[in-house]
Amino acid sequence: MSKNYYSLGLMSGTSGDGVDASLINSDGSSNYKVEINKYFEYENNFSQKIHSLKDKINTVTDLEIYSKEIKALEKELTIFHSKVVMDIVKNIKKKIDFIGFHGQTIFHDPSKKISKQIGDGKLLSQLTQTTVIYNFRQNDIQNGGEGAPLAPIFHKALVKQNKIELPVCILNIGGISNVTIILDYEQNHFTSRDLGPGNCLIDAWVRKNKKGNFDKDGTYAAMGKTNDLILNQALDNFDNRPDQNRLSFDTKDFDVNFLRGVSFEDGAATLTELSGRIIGAGLFSLLSKVKNKLLKVLVSGGGRKNKTLIQSIKSRTLKNLIIHPIDDCGVDGDYVESQAFAFLAIRRFLELPISFPGTTGCKSPVTGGEIVKNF
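RESULT FIELD:
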């Protein structure tokens, strides 16, 4: 019988507003049990620091130019994560075997084979006295992959564990939207890819206009009117982008600078419709082969709560798609990614693959992540 491990996954997503923490008990293969899910909001304008730094980094050269700033922010981020770990540890009696530490993505450019997450695994291991597994994307990139998306192997475990009927899709709407299509429980023949913007354009617009960090429930968008002229131009630009075959995106691939001469609410409506149409078109394209079957699309991530966005997606997809929150299947849609990195940490320790040709474009299935025990 395979051994189970306690693994704590820490995820700081593209919204950069805090850390999702999930403790799971799993063998890294066929089963897992969620022990704890908890969210820790960043304090003292730390979220603003993350976005300010990300705004400066537009090229590989910028990583060098701002290296001192990056290092300082990385230390601050790691210390915050260590406090998260200590908060979890003090409330449990079990010993944590691994921490799956995703870190904060500040630059991702698959064309140049670079994906940069800040987060000091050695320091986190030292501060928490726990084995840390981090830097999950590099091995995939070295083997011809794009370094993302990495959650699909966990999506398959999630679907099997919760006895969700196949075929099924997991649509994750974070800053970027991505989808995993699972047709069978046993084989790793799944298809996964980023679709385009999820919440990133909407969040950026809300932040730029100093209305908060995101559009809660899609309320601002619902108050506005879509500017069709701007929308159609933006859709044309997306459809005619030079890198049609890429499997992953960065939030830096999208910006709100094309929105001019519109009110805040109309801007929110236009960006929400743009994101919804891109996601809907991506689903339509990928799932057209299974158009004769009823297919569930389970939505996870913060974007599932944006009612205006979800309505836009529903209006642009195949009639046989049933789209609803993953929460309807007994899974907390806020913590799928943090649970995924807890699961990936166990797989890395066991030297099991975490990325596949059908997910990241790597040449063959590979594991990934650096293991550090600095205590």
